[in-house]
Amino acid sequence: MGKSAADSLIMSKRKVRNETSCSSINPLSDARKKDKSGQKSDSSFSKADLKAKELWHRKSGAGYRLFVEYYAGQTKGVVHVDDDSDSHISSRSNINLVDKLHSKRQKGLSRAAKRRKKKKGGTEETCADLNAPPVVTADAYSMISSQLKAAIENRSECKHIINFLSAISQTLPLTLRIRHASFIEDSLKSKAEMFISELKERYSDLVRPVSYDSSNKTIFQATPNSNLSKFSLGKISPNLKRLIMKGTSEGIIARQELGSMLPVIALAGVNKLEFGSKVLDMCASPGSKTLQALEIVGTFSKSDLKRKKGRIVANDIHPLRLESLQDAIKRSGVSTSLTQRIIYTNHDASKFPTPKSGSTFDCIIADVPCSGDGTVRKDPHILPNWMPSISNSLHHLQMTILKRAIKLLKIGGVVAYSTCSLNPIEDEAVVASVLSWGNRFADDNDAVELLDWPDDSLPGLKFCPGVETWRVADYVDSSISKMTMREGEDSFEGSGFDLDEKAKLTWYDSFEDTKNVVKTFSPTMWPPTEDDRNNINLKKCRRLLPGDNNTGGFFVALIRKNTDVTFQKNRT
Fold this sequence. Notes:
20 helices, four-stranded antiparallel beta sheet
């Protein structure tokens, strides 16, 4: 990017300007502040009422039950596929064992579940856990959380998502990525070789190269039986922790979850992210993708000495997150010759300004704000607060960010749209609506198009294709009217409020079904028409399911801009 363009886009690293109001800089927080009717909380609810709603949602296990009901009710391919499917999902579940476990009385139930069990006098229906590859065992069952057990109580309709529920009950394994520069820069090559050699020779029982990395030296993951995670690393192997910390400080490795690596790997695989590229990371914090991309666009060999290095614009709407991003990059151990290629900006991604010079980007990383329900293996706080309204509320923002990304691309440029959510409202629905609009109002019916996942990029990795149909739901908390809780209290004792009340979803087959509902829905949340579906081919999107490769959940789509695109404002 030229200097004039940089001047128009970039604020100084030392002067982080907040160009947005505090109420709009955390989209996920805003989505979570929606009340149970899907609307912004208003003055009709007191502070104590709002606290009571939040407390009830957590303590009653409503989030777990809604999560289970939502994904059990979704179409095939969202989190489950048939055993004979060609989508590479593992099929080693043992439903007979699950049925036996269902018939047993188990310990570790929540208080609410125990009360329900006592009232009914019945047995507790439960779901087994698994390790990757997914195998349901009694030992794995004992590891599942009591809240998730209670959520599937007496619910035989959840059997088809047993493997999914089991997979997300396991702690996320430690994953390491050897930095790209370690294989190119002379100053790092020998150190990287020694580091990899030590990992393979001394710690092969704890970490090994993943099978889907053909180089056998780029991505390492904790072995299935090691129980090694970022939380247990120091306890299980202090020596390995010291080695990893040393490798990190020297800029050799990065601790990065596999899903987080995929957008950059895919962009490099279609040859749009390479040495010299101009890249925009629209929602850059915490910075793992920024650094991963920087290693490619800024690292050069002797043959590249005469070529111009690339640049990365790292943007984030939240000034504090941007400062954290800068601090993380300073601590990464990556050389300043690389990090000086980063330009930091503080803009709303959906309104990111066009450079005055007119210089647009070769590729864009649009890892948008999302509900994050694919990250429950490393963030257990997501499920207690889970509601479908979070995804529904983020849908429009995600669309506007993707549209802006496409506008900022060069002709022929590619954007990697991604989320760490498995909810199709945040994934395929966003991609389908933006591509449908972009092509509908363009002279060329293929003004924007989905690209296939590059064949040479992690060829052994198990994916599920994008889904073409899905369901839309929300829920109204019928118990809100019964809440009476004095300010300063932290319980419902004496309020007449029943923690045992079940949270249930309402499903909407079409946008027309929501006409008489006080909700904020958009027609774009529903699957596209058959014609649009055939033109878009959503199967080119990629879903990473937690049980297939022992990872978190992730979604990624590659979108190429073939001609200029104008999005009609009155259709957003």
